[in-house]
Amino acid sequence: MNKRVDTAQVMHLPDYRGGSIVNLMASLTTARGGNLPLYPPLSALQPYSLADSRNIVLIVIDGLGYDYLRSSPASAALHRHLIGRLTSVFPSTTASAIPVFLTGLAPQQHALTGWFSYFKEIDRLITVLPFTERASSKSLLDLGVDAQLLFDYNSVFEVIATPSYVVVPEHIAYSTFNLIHCEGATVRPYSSLSQFFSVVGQIIDSDSQSKYIYAYWSKLDHVAHDKGIDSRAVAAHFAELDAAFAKFLIDVEGSGSMVIVTADHGMIDSGPEQLIQLERHPQLAQTLVRPLCGERRMAYCYVKASKCRQFERYVQDQLDDYVTLYKSEELIEQGFFGLGRVHPRLRERIGDYALIMKENYIIKDWLPGERHYAHIGVHGGVSRQEMYVPLIVVEV
Length: 396
Known about the structure:
CATH class of the largest domain: Alpha Beta
Low-confidence stretches: 1-7
Structural class: alpha/beta
CATH topology of the largest domain: Alkaline Phosphatase, subunit A
Largest sheet: 7 strands, mixed
Number of helices: 15
């Protein structure tokens, strides 16, 4: 990797005081008779503006960044109904942001801090959403782990006072993670784009009760990981998704519903020339007591007590053009993860140091036997493309 002239990194951080997806959940929950006292409502969408809607529908499109949507044709239905932007959370990744939509809590309270996390209480490095051990890919249930002990909080659906529904892909609908985080809601799986909107419409039309519907679309994120967020494949999928959304609005017109669309994070593209592979930095690797955790765009490092100075010196001397180094405790002190009380396990799950990647660089390690894969579209960092997500509101 060629060294390059360093430029100052502009960090775009979550706005937990009224401008993030956490605050959106405070507004939605309050409007449905619940109470999430930790965070104020969203400044741009106060609860009173939602309270009279018969149905509140929250559609989360995984990976749809605000900047990407702004670059789409102005005639697109999603673009046409855009009213503003929100911030994601830190890190700007599915594993930390989707729990926000399901619990109303920021990472500071739910303590899910990235795709790979070290859970000290079971002494395992796990892949959180699939609920598997990273090293073996074995189900944690098969390894005797009690999921209820790891996810020690209520779902947002247990707080909401009206019937709630969760519309999710069938391959994750009844997964361990999903069932625990959707406690209190009726889960409705789907297998295609047309079925996704059809199921939401069926729930809206099912009766005259007030309802809350959470609907999650994941394919845009999958395509972007594989082909890149700026690829023709993503553009084609976005056009298909947008057309289906436009049809959905027509189908549910007059239902007394407030349809809100946002995302868990945005994305940027990276490539092999931006990849820092840990095995190519053996002096750094030997300072670590366990594998990297977190994300490719933001890695937590667990460092041997006797090697801290060596670790810091190596990062500063060899990687300063590519990463910003933090002591992990500083991230808590500076409010990266949220406001208020800190989950008792949070510090255990963010290591001793954090490497926040600059520009579009990524960092990765591989465990013996682990399947190697490449992502073009990536997220988890603090660029504006990753951090800002759209706020789309349509009353039908």
